[in-house]
Design goal:
The complex is a heterodimer of chains A (238) and B (504). Chain A is mainly alpha-helical and 238 residues long. Chain A is built from 10 helices and 3 strands. A 3-stranded antiparallel β-sheet of chain A has the order 1-2-3. In chain A, a hairpin with a 4-residue loop joins strand 1 and strand 2. In chain B, the strands form 3 sheets. Chain B has a two-stranded antiparallel sheet. Chain B contains 19 helices and 6 strands. Chain B is mainly alpha-helical and 504 residues long. Classes of the chains: A mainly alpha (238), B mainly alpha (504). Chains A and B meet through helix 1 of A and helix 9 of B.
Chain lengths: 238, 504
């Protein structure tokens, strides 16, 4: 739940742990994409250049694995944080201020499209818009599938004690296509929908400094803005 | 390409040629064809050799050999090349009459089908490892080159004294080892304990999970300069002064690490007992406010000020120097020496992990390299001088600012003991591993000490393990003691300096 900071009329949107995890996941994800695709498309010139810089395919693979561990640790940290948030801070994991999908998101989507065509006002988004929820949930589930398939590819000998051999092929295919999808989603959809949109161009700083200005709150998160005004004593989320 | 190649499949050389020629301009092709013709006519001649007695017969399968039968340098990275290349070697080495004279005895050099057991090396060409054998005289100078593919072990499994142990001494099934004084290396011996020649043709590898081969050297009364017991590897806590692996190692090291973590945690919790930015009760709010503050400092220009504070005040101890040059000197002899040793071990770890084949990595992980031996001994000496100086000022001269407490003395005793044990250990290592004086004298304390120790006539290979454990125990005590008592200042003072730098 945001809190006011009177000096700059800005609102705390993300606590430090969220900023930190976002930063690590962002860097880890970029690194994973570069090393992973360099290995996948090893015949390409750019891939050879990357592999040359990193010192060979073996080293590229170990960088990839190290980054994977670091990135997945962020997912684990985030899940632990969710448990802490629910159990100790008595916060809510569902409801308007959460990442949990709601029917309102669908309505927001339709209203938003209407707004694009000038047929209605901008919908009153809650703390997280449907686009942000989609980004978040896609990453949360995507990381787990990437993690699982990645582990199968990391130690196939171990997993084939239990799983049939074609699971290795399955893991390979899933890992590659999931990676392409994730890269497309993050580097295109996420980048455009948060950073490159006209309101925020060139970068949305709120995930880095944790703050959001009053004007942006009123415009982009009107639903939340109204709710804070009504009940300012709800438990803090940070 | 495939359609073209199908008919030519039996002639891979021709295929390669066609592939190479394809991209060339038309005129160039003629030049290449002409050159190729000249070259092949020059090489495909019958045998004319300077050797008085050829090693292999001039005829194989009723046909006269040509030079290129053997000297054609097949691509041993392909299966075809491996098979071709091995066929040449096995022409002799599969026969029972393939023998070698060692002194008056004969040893068989015959390789059977089972000589390789199940090792992956059964798919590798002989010359991949025996690199300098395909020549005359047919005798290797360098031996098999494991390191052209593999990397030396780091500190984790096999610590530094093993750098002079040839790979085969452990990774072969033959169990007779010898210390070769000429090359200062421990290698497989051609003789068993009775002086009978043993054949080393069995190329299979012993199971590395079963550490039985350690006992080839590590037993009481061994003659290769090994300690009488198999000692554990270093732990990550040794990083403070030594190159170490990032693993906990022996069970002994769990205790200090646990105490360190618990101590640091309790220190942090202690700090958070006070109020943070006005918040007195909620620990959650205190952590949130503190982390917000840290985040803002890191992502602002103040980070550069923090860097300079870290370098000048934390590393170089500017404030202490302003107070008293004498105290700064005393403190720096101990503190800066440990910082330098720590930096060197971190640097070594990074270099070894990134470029394990490089000469830098090999030099840095070797304790007997001139630079490493000298630096470690010099810094150790500085610590000893610092500890002695501190002890004198605390116990004898007692200047007014010194308030000698039991805690302070304990810290000094631990550090002093650690370094003394370290030097004795180094002396004993140089003594028992019989490192030649020409190499060892760079350890300008360890080497004289080793000569001194040799006068005592103890069974040093046996005693070595006890000194090792004593050193490790004191080191563990130092790490465990860090967040408590006097040594707490190692953690709290830098943090205080970093937080309160604005007060200047």
């Amino acid at each position: 739940m945001p809190q006011t900071s009177n000096a700059q009329e800005s609102y705390m949107r993300f606590p430090v742990i969220h900023r930190f995890l976002h930063l690590v996941v962002m860097l880890g994800f970029i690194g994973l994409a570069i090393t992973g695709f360099s290995l996948k498309f090893s015949s390409q010139g750019w891939a050879k250049a990357v592999v040359l810089i990193l010192g060979g395919a073996g080293r590229t693979a170990s960088v990839h694995k190290t980054l994977a561990v670091v990135t997945y640790l962020c997912v684990v940290a985030h899940i632990l944080w969710l448990i802490y948030y629910k159990a100790i801070l008595k916060g809510q994991l569902t409801g308007p201020q959460s990442m949990f999908p709601r029917v309102k998101d669908l309505r927001d989507l339709i209203d938003h499209i209407k707004y694009f065509f000038g047929k209605g006002p901008l919908p009153k988004f809650e703390r997280f818009t449907y686009l942000e929820k989609f980004d978040y949930l896609a990453l949360l589930f995507g990381m787990n599938t990437m993690g699982m398939t990645g582990m199968v590819l990391w130690s196939p000998e171990f997993f084939t004690r239990v799983l049939p051999g074609y699971f290795i092929n399955l893991a390979q295919i899933l890992h590659v296509y999931e990676a392409m999808m994730a890269v497309a989603l993050k580097f295109v959809v996420h980048t455009f929908s948060t950073h490159l949109r006209p309101e925020n161009f060139p970068i949305d700083k709120s995930i880095f400094n944790g703050r959001m200005s009053k004007e942006r709150m009123i415009r982009d998160h009107a639903g939340e803005w109204e709710r804070i005004g009504q009940t300012s004593t709800t438990p803090s989320s940070d | 390409m495939r359609e073209n190649g199908r008919g030519l499949g039996r002639h891979p050389q021709l295929l390669v040629l066609i592939r190479e020629v394809r991209g060339q301009a038309l005129e160039k092709r003629f030049v290449i064809f002409a050159l190729f013709g000249l070259l092949s006519s020059a090489l495909l001649r019958p045998i004319v050799c300077d050797a008085k007695e050829p090693l292999i017969s001039a005829y194989a399968d009723g046909k006269e050999r040509v030079c290129l039968d053997c000297h054609r340098s097949p691509n041993i990275n392909t299966n075809e090349g491996v098979i071709n290349s091995r066929a040449i070697c096995m022409e002799c080495h599969s026969k029972s009459e393939c023998n070698k004279d060692i002194g008056t005895q004969q040893v068989s050099l015959q390789l059977g089908k089972n000589s390789f057991g199940k090792t992956p090396h059964r798919y590798v060409a002989c010359v991949q490892c025996h690199r300098d054998l395909a020549r005359l005289p047919h005798e290797s100078e360098a031996g098999a080159q494991c390191l052209s593919c593999h990397v030396v072990h780091g500190e984790k499994e096999i610590h530094d004294p093993h750098l002079r142990v040839r790979c085969q001494a452990c990774h072969r099934v033959s169990k007779y080892v010898v210390l070769d004084h000429k090359s200062n290396e421990v290698r497989l011996s051609h003789f068993d304990e009775n002086g009978t020649v043993v054949s080393l043709t069995n190329h299979s590898l012993p199971d590395v999970k079963n550490k039985e081969f350690c006992l080839r050297c590590h037993f009481k009364g061994n003659r290769v300069g090994a300690a009488a017991a198999v000692l554990p590897s270093k732990s990550v806590i040794c990083m403070l002064c030594h190159t170490s692996p990032i693993s906990i190692g022996h069970k002994l090291f769990w205790i200090p690490l646990l105490l360190l973590v618990l101590g640091v945690l309790s220190l942090i919790l202690f700090w958070f007992k006070g109020n943070v930015e006005g918040e007195k009760d909620s620990l959650h709010r205190k952590i949130a406010l503190a982390s917000e503050k840290i985040w803002q400092k890191i992502f602002s220009r103040e980070i550069f000020t923090l860097f300079s504070v870290f370098f000048l005040d934390v590393i170089l101890q500017r404030r202490l120097l302003q107070e008293s040059v004498r105290r700064w000197g005393l403190h720096s002899l101990i503190y800066l020496s440990i910082v330098l040793r720590f930096s060197l071990s971190v640097f070594t770890l990074v270099v070894f992990n990134l470029w394990p084949h490089s000469s830098w990595a090999m030099a840095l992980i070797n304790k007997d390299t001139a630079f490493v031996a000298f630096t470690y001994d010099l810094l150790g000496l500085f610590i000893i001088i610092g500890v002695c100086w501190a002890a004198i000022s605390r116990l004898i001269t007692k200047p007014p600012h010194v308030i000698s407490e039991m805690q302070d003395n304990l810290a000094l005793v631990i550090i002093g003991l650690l370094v003394v044990f370290g030097f004795i250990l180094e002396g004993a290592r140089i003594l028992i591993t019989q490192i030649p004086g020409g190499i060892a004298w760079y350890s300008f304390i360890g080497f004289p000490l080793s000569r001194l120790l040799s006068d005592f006539g103890f069974d040093w290979p046996y005693i070595y393990q006890f000194i090792w454990y004593a050193h490790a125990f004191v080191g563990a005590a130092l790490i465990a003691y860090l967040p408590f008592g006097k040594m707490k200042h190692v953690i709290s003072t830098p943090l205080n300096l970093m937080i309160s730098y604005k007060d200047e």
